[in-house]
Design goal:
With 351 residues, this protein is of the alpha/beta class. The chain folds into 2 domains: 204 residues, inorganic pyrophosphatase (n-terminal core) (Alpha-Beta Complex), CATH 3.90.1640; 120 residues, Roll (Diaminopimelate Epimerase, Chain A, domain 1), CATH 3.10.310.30. The strands form 2 sheets. The chain has a 6-stranded mixed beta sheet, with helices on both faces. Strand 1, helix 3 and strand 2 form a beta-alpha-beta unit. The structure holds adenosine monophosphate (AMP) and manganese (II) ion (2 copies).
Amino acid sequence: MAIQLISNSDDLMQMNNQETGLEIEIKNPPQDLIQFIGSCPRFIIAGHKEPDGDCIGSQLALRSALERLGKEVVLCSAGPFKRTEVQSYAGQFVTIPKDENTVDAKVIIIDCSDKERTGSIKEFLDKFPCAVIDHHIAVNHSESTPQQPVYIDENSPSCTLLVYKLIKALNLELTKEEATLLFFGLSTDNGFFRHLTEKNSVVFDAAKEMVLRGEKKKKIYNSIYGGKSLDSRILLGHILLRTESYFDGKLLLSYETLEDFKKYGIENRDSDILNQLMLSIKGVQVFLTIRQECEDNCAVSFRSVDAINVAKVASIFGGGGHKNASGLTMKGDISFVKQKMLEAFSSVFTD
Ligand code: AMP
Ligand code: MN
Ligand code: MN
């Protein structure tokens, strides 16, 4: 089956915007979300499993704003808090809150719209009315009832930008802590502004306000990109040495074995720097990393440049994400998963 990865209406819309010089608009929060928040004194704010800076920054900033409106808020995450930049926040989250903290509560899920991505807390969340704030390409692989209201904008470079717009729509000014958390999330998801273009002036305007009101930008940069261990660099070396090139160098692939996983632990993964190094190679259009998580299960992380929509490939196998950054998990060992990925990409690169 040939997979059409390059042109769909969203991509065309983005290309048209680029060609015509149009600004990329970000949606405003819908009125039913404002009413959902106004109608309830107690909220559970949940995010996706294995949270990143955008998820954590959004959850914490929204909690702060809702508390300023007099709401009670509990933060939920299935964890684990494995990325170095989010580890210090783990103590502010629970997996399942105590019953007395959830009476008549409503849920807001952040940075994922498929409830399966919340991991082990999904069944607990299913008991409550649920809103979603997300910026991933909308897919719902789970059987759970659709959430309402939804505030989803695939054009937003981070969830924190949507939370920023929500805080404004709630007629609040950013506090220093909120501005810092929002900038932290925004810059983790766009590679410290590497992935933005001149069409994103709305985002730069918001970032300016966050920088002026929040902690020093350099401190936030160091909290994301500093603090790595020597082992994380040695692991990076192993992964780089295993790189394989396919389709005349348009697709590069590497992998992390179960032995690496046991020896270095997940906390020594630094996929951001790995992706950055691989995508800077001349002619590369896609880079993917296969990570064996147990004997018969792997996670695959995709990155692409320009027109190739890797979220579409991931969604064929039950995963998802964004046009240029996506992921999936799949049964099988590294060689099986590699074969599946090469088959999926062959129709794109051999045309
Ligand atoms: P990663 O490569 O893990 O940084 O993930 C890149 C993007 O893909 C993120 O936006 C994730 O939310 C998304 N993603 C990663 N793994 C999955 C998955 N198993 N299912 C759906 N989306 C995923
Ligand atoms: Mn995320
Ligand atoms: Mn995000």
